[in-house]
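Blinded run. Sample ID left blank on purpose so nobody reads anything into the name before looking at the predicted structure. Input follows.
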Amino acid sequence: MLQAGIVGLPNVGKSTLFNAVTRTRKAEAANYPFCTIEPNTGMVTVPDARLEKLSAISHSQKIVPAVIEFVDIAGLVKGASQGEGLGNQFLGHIRNVDAVIQVVRCFSDDNIQHVHGSVDPVRDIEIINTELVLADLAAVQKRADRVAKSARGGDKAAKAEAELCQRIGLHLDAGKPANTMEFSSEDRVLLKSFGLLSLKPTLFACNVSENDLATADANPFVEKVKAYVQLHHDTQAVVISAQIESELIDLDPDEQAEFLRGLGVEESGAGALIRAAYRLLGLKTYFTTGEKETRAWTIREGNKAPQAAGVIHSDFERGFIAAECIAYDDLIRLGSFARGRDAGKLRIEGKEYVVADGDVLEFRFNV
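Blinded prediction complete.
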């Protein structure tokens, strides 16, 4: 199970957000720094409106959505890379996740203290990024020292690694995270063993107040974050109100919808954040559907049909023969598998077929 780690400065709403998206109250959320020490983990359902429509076609008895795992990581502080605020421990927790959701405070509230005494989301982002970059710089230098002797002796693998360390070191030394650097396919093979913190795919969660959610696009803090992220990271910034999410936890879906309508919004932001995290992890969804259930299955970008079959059961991959496939949009438009077949949209795909997001599949296999 791939993990997305929630990080940020202390007291920006990480634990409140974690509780909200996991629909639990596992993480302590309090108005003081470091109320979280050990990371909390929780399963998160990926919202997908396509499941209901597929279920209606198949008259399914139940729906099973895709899930990913979120990790609530304690707040980082300036100097974490030198051990401040239990920094080495917290950086180690980040090293274990596959992607990073950096929460930034985009609201003013005199009753909630900020570790730096004022609200400045861009400053906060740069503090976190600097600590990740400094930790990576130290790791790269240590690695370069380890291979230097072999590289001087003519070892080709060591020379390639030393050259990569030099390039990454120069990039990091300029204050730039590794995920903004271009790498060749050969580089990426080597990088798998580097464990760089700033290389992890990252998105930013702009945590706004309850009163600002409906007009978040005009929030000056949100505007600054989106401009900064576009310029420096080429990634996504999602607006969310952790406080609103915490109030929705105990409400049923109808009550949630009514509550949000009263605030002038259709969605609080949690769904958008979860879907963005899913994409950030390089994940896609295919579906199986029938009278028993309609289910979303999670695969990685580029997976072929046998690998997709293996997500259901290893026997499906081992004995894969073919996949009967129709695109979600075609099935919904035509209304049934029979009409899909008559229209030539229901097709048979073999072992080399790369599964597309939204494919509805049925596998043929023999073991």
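Unblinding after everyone has recorded impressions. The first helix runs from residue 14 to 22.
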